[in-house]
Amino acid sequence: MSAIRMLVLGAVRQHGRAHGYQVRNDLEYWGAHEWSNAKPGSIYHALRQLTKQGLLHEHETAPSTAGGPPRTEYEITEKGTEEFLALLRAALTAVAHDQKSDALSAAVGFMVFLPREEVVSLLKERVRAIEDWRHSVTEYYTPEDGPGQLGHIGEIMNLWVHSADAGAEWTKGLIERIENGAYAFAGEGEPFVGVLGDGEENPFATGEKHSGDRR
User: Fold this and answer.
1) Is the pLDDT of residue 166 over 90?
2) Rounded to an integer, what is the distance from CA 84 to the centroid of its chain?
3) Cut 0.70: pTM above it
């Protein structure tokens, strides 16, 4: 699963319509350039590709206040919304060996766009999948006997078991917080989405210039 697709689609969806620099600025505000492949070149490439695939629609607007050529704004299409929600749901249920952590991080950032009950259900499905994966490992490896039972290769299975335990514990904690009323989900009012307002300075911006930056 490519996290950049979910990140770019979600960032555009948050605004309704957004130009490339806005998408980049919001993702840098989230620190996504640190924990995913959401670098400037990848973001602008994704915007172009998602448009070609019919997931985003381009709007040409008046030139920016800084001058220069007309600025392109993007709007998510119905097909794009379906793709975004499918990626989001898949990332919330996938276990560690099936995805990179950037996809899960992106999904947690966007989970408030789903109903609370659905998010809890998806996360419980994730816990079950993690526990099934752990069981498949412990059919061949007994954690209580330590990794040395299989030579140094046992350290790999030891890592898998610890990753499964940590993943399940974290997910159960998140489920508990959500069930206890944390955060505002779809249908519960305006969710906190963490986007920058017009003209608001981004304290986490990289400052790296890119040819696609037309404000």
Assistant:
1) yes
2) 10
3) yes
